[in-house]
C-alpha cells in the first residue's frame, strides 16, 4: 500500500468513527455514502420514514465541514424555490438575482419524490454540469457540489416517480433497510436517555474531520488504485448486456459504466487495496444499476427481482484473470 493510501485509510477510520457516534448500524449504507462522497458524485437514499435517511445526510455534511443546505420537497414546490429567482429592486430600478438553496456544496433534497417531475427537473443541470441557468444567465456552483436525495418507496402515498434522466444522474441508490433487532433495541434504549442520535448530533458531538482539504486529498488518493484494462472491459461488457437481456426493458447507459468503475475503485481503496478486482465490480453493480434499469412487465409478474437478473448477467460475462 502506498503512503497516500495509508493516509486515506487513516482519514477513513476517523470519518467512520464520527458517523457512528450518531448512526447505529447501517454499515453498508454508510460505506456506500462514503463512496459517493469520495467520487464527488450524487446519491439517492431510499427507505421507509423514520429509518434515519435525513439524519445520515446531515451527519455526512457535518463531517465534511462544507456549506450545507436542505430543501424539503413538497407537491407545491416550484423550480424557482430551488434555483432562485430575479427580484425587481425599486430603488435601483433593476432586477437582482436572489440565489436559491442549490447554491451550496452539500445539498440535501429531502423526500425528492414528493414533488412532481417539473420541480425535480430543476436539479438536472446542477447535478450534471454544476451550473444553474436562470433568466438566460448561467451561474457556477461549487466544484464539489453534491446532492444526497432521500425518497420514500414509490408505493407510499403521495409519491411521484423520478424521471429516468433524473435517476441516471445519481451514481447509486442506497437502500436503508430496517435495523437488526439488537440495533433497534440499542436505539430504543438510547431514546429513553440523553444520548438519542438526534440529541447527540444537535449537541455538536460530530466533528468535521474532512475539512481543510482532507476530503480533496482522499479523492486524489483514488488515482493510486489501479483498474486493469481487462477489468474495465469486464464492467463495460456487463453494462452492455443489460441493454439486450430478455428480462430487461430499459438497460443502463454509458454513465452507468462510468459510475460502476468509479464506485469499484473507491470500494477497493476502502478495503485497503491499490487494485480493483472483479468482486469489487460485482459488489457495486446492484446499487449502481438498480435505479437505472427497468424490468419487463412479464419478468416482474414471474417474480423476478433486479438482483436475480443482474446475477444471471454476471454468469454470462467472462471473468478476467
Structure summarized in a few sentences:
The protein is an alpha/beta fold and 321 residues long. 45% of the residues lie in helices and 15% in strands. It folds into 2 domains: 3-218, Rossmann fold (3-Layer(aba) Sandwich); 225-316, Magnesium chelatase subunit I, C-Terminal domain (Helicase, Ruva Protein, domain 3).
Strand content: 15-25%
Let me know the CATH homologous superfamily of the largest domain: P-loop containing nucleotide triphosphate hydrolases
Strand order of the largest sheet: 2-5-8-1-9
* Strand elements, count: 11
Poorly predicted regions are none
Radius of gyration: 21 Å
> How many angstroms separate the termini?
21 Å
Count up the helices. Answer: 15
- CATH-defined fold name of the largest domain: Rossmann fold
Quote the average pLDDT: 88
Shape: globular
SS-based structural class? alpha/beta
The top level CATH class name of the largest domain: Alpha Beta
Note the main sheet.
5 strands, parallel
Give short descriptive properties of this protein.
321 residues; 2 domains; 15 helices; 45% helix; 15% strand
Can you tell me about this structure?
By secondary structure, the protein is of the alpha/beta class. It has 2 domains: 3-218, 3-Layer(aba) Sandwich (Rossmann fold), CATH 3.40.50; 225-316, Magnesium chelatase subunit I, C-Terminal domain (Helicase, Ruva Protein, domain 3, Orthogonal Bundle), CATH 1.10.8.80. 45% of the residues lie in helices and 15% in strands. It has 15 helices and 11 strands. It has helices at residues 3-19, 27-38, 53-64, 80-83, 117-120, 124-129, 164-168, 181-191, 197-202, 214-221, 229-241, 254-270, 278-289, 297-301, 306-316, and strands at 43-46, 68-72, 84-89, 94-99, 106-110, 131-134, 137-140, 146-151, 172-175, 248-250, 294-295. The strands form 4 sheets. A 5-stranded parallel beta sheet has the order 2-5-8-1-9. It has a two-stranded antiparallel sheet with strand order 3-4. A hairpin with a 2-residue loop joins strand 6 (131-134) and strand 7 (137-140). The two termini are 21 Å apart. The mean pLDDT is 88.
